[in-house]
Amino acid sequence: MERFVIDVPDAVLGDLARRLAATRWTDDFANDDWRYGANVAYMRGLTEYWRDRYDWRARERSMNRFAHFREHIDGIPIHFIHERGKGPKPIALMLNHGWPWSFWDFEKVIGPLSDPAAFGADPADAFDVIVPSLPGYAFSTPLRTPGLNFWKTADLWIALMERLGYPRFATQGGDWGSFVSAQLGHKYPDRIIGVHIHTPAALSFLDPKTKFDRNDFAPDEIPALQRMGRFAAEETGYMALQKTKPQTPSIALNDSPAGLLAWIVEKRRRWSDCHGDVESRFTKDELIDTAMLYWVTGSFNTSARYYYEGAHDLWRPSHDRTPVVEAPVAIPIFPGEITYPPRKWAERYYNLQRWTVMTSGGHFAAAEEPEALVADIRAFFRELR
Hints:
The chain is an alpha/beta fold. Helix content is 42%, strand content 15%. Strand 4 (91-96), helix 4 (107-114) and strand 5 (127-132) form a beta-alpha-beta unit.
């Protein structure tokens, strides 16, 4: 296990600048509301900002203020942040990201979780915070091993935490991170202190036969069911492509930084609780940070393959007990999330100990509502320490 410092070569940044300057923009019309996808006028302005004003070296220094490490497990490169807690008895907490996220989506919560006193909170709530990059994402590259999906990632994380000296730990996540965390609570309940997730769905969600039962939805939950139906009809084209032929768009998006940025920003706008104004939730720098981490590591292709690997090797349960996820579970419900499970189902499927309805926030909860997320994490695990 070795310390790791982010230091992108100047040649990579020079090549990026040339590609941004040479972007060939498509025509766009009748698309002010982004109904056809990324709005070219907005993306053109954001790309010009990336080329002329974005300071990667400053962002790099900010990332490097945390302790980064790299390790290989079964030949698979794993990057992670490991920040030791400052308090009387910290417990280990693994934060798991999704797509199109990165470890950097947790920037605003790492400090408050690891050093609560520095943020005006109780040091007794301190955590040792571990933030891995999913296999094939960002600096967990280059990935040359096929077949890695979310439930196999959970096995890797058990091995990683053993090497870090944590026989038991807590876990949190959204998007893919929710499924990695839930799988940990399913397969390894004796190793998991608790599971905190905000994109709840069945671990078998990639199986086309898996669906919520309409009868589980209370009358006041029917609008949530309808929102999920609209999302499935209008917002899942990316998933169909990444589950079936991920390498084809990867050739384009590995070649065009503007195209990569558009692919990512369109999701940030649609999946966050921004009401159409993406910069009400993310600054220009934050939007570009995500694209940069995919660009400088050339990792879009292996991040997209994560969908293929999950869809072509469907989740298999490790036991037939109920609840399916036996470790204690907390679910914060953010109004802008993309999944809205009925509580009746959640109480059957999970060992549900906490259910919090949030007033704002969406799919990128740690970046959108860091204070609310931190408060909910602290409250849940305070009872489990």
